[in-house]
Prior knowledge:
By secondary structure, the protein is an all-alpha fold. It has helices at 11-24, 28-46, 65-79. It is built from 3 helices and no strands. α1 packs across α2. The N and C termini lie far apart (72 Å).
Amino acid sequence: MKAITLRNLPPEIEKAVRKEADRRRTSINKAVITLLEGKAEGRKKRQGRAKEYDDLDALAGSWTKKEAAEFDKALTAQRLIDPELWK
């Protein structure tokens, strides 16, 4: 198996690799391999499927319960069906 040297690794990537190594209680090398294998497998699974969009993922789970309740309250009027429009 060939060796690869990574230089100028961005700090956030290094942190993610170290976190994965700690989580799995394994070496940095094995953590990098695991992460790369997961990425490669995910790419294979996605081939042939419709494109997945993730541009709103940062919003998922970011509302407080109060904000979610306010949003649902604001939508209540929009969810009502006006029978006059269906004649």
